[in-house]
Design a protein that fits this description.
Layout (H helix, E strand, L loop, with lengths): L1 E4 L2 H14 L12 H15 L11 E3 L2 E10 L8 E5 L9 E8 L4 E9 H7 L1 E3 L16 E5 L16
Parallel strand pairs: 3-5
Antiparallel strand pairs: 1-6, 2-3, 4-8, 5-6, 7-8
Helix pairs in contact: 1-2
């Protein structure tokens, strides 16, 4: 995991993007996560030295690979057994990789947790239905989703050096 201090400039740009975006259809948090989501995308783009390229299916590209960043707003630093989630509604997104981040609700710091190729993610994931209780943390699942623990992610530092075919 990579800890990142979030700058005022990142927050300012994220607020502008969140304001212009509004609420996405089927948003679990009814748009409340947009700001943190844009912060997560910004810290990943900066860490990988690539530009953001927001579409419905992905957030940025590296070479010909499409990367989608998934962010959770949190109150505490992440631990390896915490889960990374993808809502079942988002499984059709046309991306090649998922990068997972967490951003403190205060927006003071965040973490780039790691990444996985899309197919690897779903091969490792546990499916939960809305209303299920995730046994790893006691959380009642708000929507059908696929979860993978942070400990199963690849280190973000390796992303640019790994040879993908």
């Amino acid at each position: 995991m990579k800890n990142v201090k979030i700058t005022d400039e990142v927050i300012k740009k994220a607020k502008q993007k969140a304001s212009s975006m509004g609420t996405l259809k089927n948003s679990i948090t009814k748009g409340e996560g947009n700001l943190a989501g844009f912060v997560g995308e910004a810290i990943v783009a900066e860490a990988l030295c690539i530009a953001e390229n927001n579409t419905f299916d992905y957030d940025m590209k590296y070479k010909n690979f499409k990367i989608d960043v998934k962010t959770k707003r949190v109150n505490t630093p992440p631990r390896p057994f915490y889960e990374c989630s993808i809502a079942a509604l988002n499984t059709k997104q046309e991306c090649d990789f998922y990068v997972f981040t967490r951003v403190l609700n205060t927006l003071k710091e965040g973490w780039i947790l790691g990444y996985l190729p899309k197919q690897d993610y779903f091969n490792l994931a546990t499916f939960y239905k809305k209303g299920d209780i995730d046994p790893s943390n006691g959380w009642e699942v708000r929507t059908d989703c696929y979860n993978v623990p942070i400990s199963k992610l690849k280190n973000i530092q390796d992303f640019l050096t790994e040879d993908y075919k």
